Amino acid sequence: MDDHGDADPIRPDLSVLLAAVEASGEAVLITSADLGEPGPRIEYVNPAFTRMTGYEVREVVGRSPRFLQGPKTEAAVLDRMRAALAAGEPFQGEAVNYRKDRSTYVVEWLITPIRDPDGRITRWMSVQRDVTARHAAEGRQDLLVKELHHRVRNTLATVQAVLSASARSAGDLAEFQRTFTARITSLAKTHTLLTEDHAQAVPFERLLRSELQPYDDPRPSRVTLRGPAVVLPSELAVPIGMAMHELTTNAVRHGSLKDPDGRLEVIWSVEERQSGRVLHWTWNEHDGPPVALPTREGFGQQLLNGVLSYRIKAKVEIAFDPDGLRVSIDIPLPSQG
Questions:
Q1: For residues 89 and 119, is the Cβ–Cβ distance under 8 A?
Q2: For range 246-253, the mean pLDDT
Q3: Where are the alpha helices (DSSP H) in the chain?
């Protein structure tokens, strides 16, 4: 060092560098430089590599990294990697690899050449990371985005149908505004319940309670709900939620929930039939005002007879019994898998 110059840079001790690589959370792999068969050969792996792959050091040294590949390893990625390395360039990419137990994982590589003072490549160093969890999260995100697009399209179509049917069935503008607002609010509640669940599904009983809770008197209970746990996907939850809203509104305005002594009983079951699983549920009103046959088909009946029947292939039976309205509905459920 002269009086005006800086000190030569301090070169770390090789033992320090090795300790750092050994302690790294990233898998590190060093191979020979030859790219042709059967090389390159593994010369060094750190502990993170053995944890990621399940192989011991003695099981991998001397072998080609190709032994980690398998049927699900994408050939196009390997071709791009070989082309980059043949040109002496670094390569970054992802591929499916296989652990010792033959389970798969997605590995992210960063492969760089190690050169001697003359610029010749003497080895390749690969820093690797298991990104399987990230890929799974991205996959779930993609599914959620697709589901969101699907639900938005369906929701817009549903709103349009509600608007049109509400306008046809309303006696005047005030009635239209009241019923349309209530129906959109009910639809929004169903979508809120769906959004709260990661799988975009909602329990059948929770849909019922979201509509009926305000009208239940626990001493004694006016509303009885009884049945097994059933989870509805969004394509069923939306029309069923609308049907529940219409039945509840009718019960409050004209049926058993209008009378302080009136009672409502909703019972459901899941039945295995030749056609598949079916949700069978009945809506039974008791001790309300005398039941009068409707003089016209309102939106509630249109929804029960139309939307449920044609949109989700439900079978609907409506009976205006002297004791109260009774509705029986059979809804095909998706197969469990």
A1: no
A2: 82
A3: 14-23, 47-53, 57-60, 75-86, 132-169, 173-196, 204-212, 234-253, 299-302
CA atoms within 13 A on the CB side of 91: 20
Q: Is 93 helix (H, G, I), strand (E, B) or coil?
A: strand
Q: What does the pLDDT look like over 61-111, one tens digit per residue?
A: 999 999 999 999 988 888 899 899 999 999 998 999 999 999 999 999 899
pLDDT band at 299 (very low <50, low <70, confident <90, very high): very low
Query: Please, what's the b/e burial string for 58-75 (b: 16 or more CB within 10 A of its CB; e: otherwise)?
Result: eebeeebbeebbeeebee
Distance set, CA 96 to CA 62, 102, 124 (Å): 22, 11, 20
Quick one: 14 exposed, middle or buried, by C-beta within 10 A (0-12, 13-18, 19+)? exposed
**Between the CA of residue 38 and those of 34, 63, 83, 94, 207, what are the distances in Å?**
9, 8, 17, 22, 63
105 vs 222: CA distance, rounded Å = 55
Band of the pLDDT at 296, cuts 50, 70, 90?
very low
DSSP state of 221: B
Rounded to two decimals, what is the model's pTM?
A: 0.50
Six token digits for residue 238: 């939306």
Domains of the chain: 14-130 (3.30.450.20), 135-332 (3.30.565.10)
Half-sphere exposure of 94 (CA within 13 A, CB side): 11
Whole-number pLDDT of residue 258: 82
pLDDT digits (tens, 9 = 90+) for 112-157: 999 988 889 999 999 998 988 887 777 777 766 666 565 566 665 5
**Any idea which residue has 């309670």 for tokens?**
209
What are the tens digits of pLDDT across the range 70-82?
Answer: 999 988 888 899 8
